[in-house]
Amino acid sequence: MKRRQFLLGAAAVAAATAVRPWKALAFPTVYPHGTTIYDPNKCWNGYTLFGTEVPSEGTVLIDMNGNVVKQWKNMCQAEHPPKLLKGGYLAGAMRPAPDKKGRVWDDPSSTDLVVMDWKENVVRRIPRAGAHHDFQFEGNSVGYYTPAAPLDNYKGKMLILTHKFVRNDKITNKMLYDDYIVEVDKNGKVIWDWLASDHFDEMHFSETAKKTIRKYPTYSMTRTPGKKGADWTHTNSASYLGPNHWYTEDPIGNAAFHPDNIIISNRQTNIVCIIDKKTKKIVWQVGPTFYPEDEWTFNGKTHKRALYRLGQFIGQHHAHMIPEGLPGAGNIMVYDNGGFAGYGAPNQGAPFGWSSGRRDYSRVVEFNPTNLHKVWEQSGKTMGLRDECKFYSSYVSSAQRLPNGNTLITNGSVGQFQEVTPSHEIVWEYISPYYTKSGNYNLVYRAYRVPYDYVPQLEKPEEHAVIPPNNTTWRIPAQQ
């Protein structure tokens, strides 16, 4: 059943939620929250973790029926994303004080990156890490569950996506709020780093795009008090590639897929690329443009129109290589948001050329990284919707491949999680009831599903199917 069809009549439960439905400001304006669809026999059952983006609510762990089984109110207070490790350990950003919520490496105003045990004792701390959008642990490339590499090592190396204030007049005369990736050892010492602005010439911008970046480099106030910066790339994910069959089969031709290499998503530039760990150079890239005349070359072979057939990425999130042990391992999966992003020539929708790419629907795309052939897509089109905008989150969001072949999708701007089958059936759906104080939004950056045995402190919960009503006949009774 399609979400919007179901939601048209699904209002009776909404009255019991903490947020008044008429203040939810969504379309439609009245709908239930919590678990709205659940088929236990078709799901990969477990717990789901997410940060609420509400400072007073922090991070929440729910079962398949939407019951809260654990909440950490001082972890990821509008920072993201929290991650659950095997054994009930939680990792994420923690504010050392309420006003310290910066996202700059080693800045006194920044958050710490911590790991705490189930009893909420901090067992590891990286002070002033300023982590934003992503981080990874040694031994698990992507930060979500795969049977081949459980997420269970919080003591080893860590990869952290953070920021650094720098100047680079080649890009713009404004201060850069530059994306900065560090790898730290078990003692928190930096052993590797990468700064986005050092690789400007490797990103294949047109001269027109370069001129637009110079004038309009997404310059705004940051979370560091009193500091403005140009968030010109807005990197929103960073993960290791991890062991993969491409590299195993051809370590020379597929050297770009070395397990230690790092894949990142640059939202504002519409670029997904792979960084060579040893040389720090960009060795594989899609974007920033996907025009029919664009040629894409890999391993000495030119693939004409490959980018065009893959389709334009706009404001994408959570680009990663599906890890070993899961269906589709080795393919790259991206939540391609749409919305607005990119730098280019002025047009009617973007008169200054800033965020020149525009599209009013989202899609989750899985593709072969050696030739860009699409393997699978979840979108309004594949769901059979006439209006593709009914699958849409213009910012945040993610996709996690599950062991049974299903995909857990976070449509983040509307606080919606959906587990979908390869044939596009929605077998689990949850709507977050955690709204900001104003009630304007219930966004969730990224949700993760973990197996029950990740949390031995809890007994496995009972699982009860949730069957939505026929929305064409379900009515809200009038008050008598």
Automatic annotation (TrEMBL):
Keywords: Iron, Iron-sulfur, Metal-binding, Signal. The lineage of its organism: Bacteria, Pseudomonadati, Thermodesulfobacteriota, Desulfovibrionia, Desulfovibrionales. GO terms for molecular function: aryl sulfotransferase activity; iron-sulfur cluster binding. PANTHER family: ASST-DOMAIN-CONTAINING PROTEIN, PQQ ENZYME REPEAT PROTEIN-RELATED. This is Transcriptional initiation protein Tat. Residues 1-26 form the signal peptide.
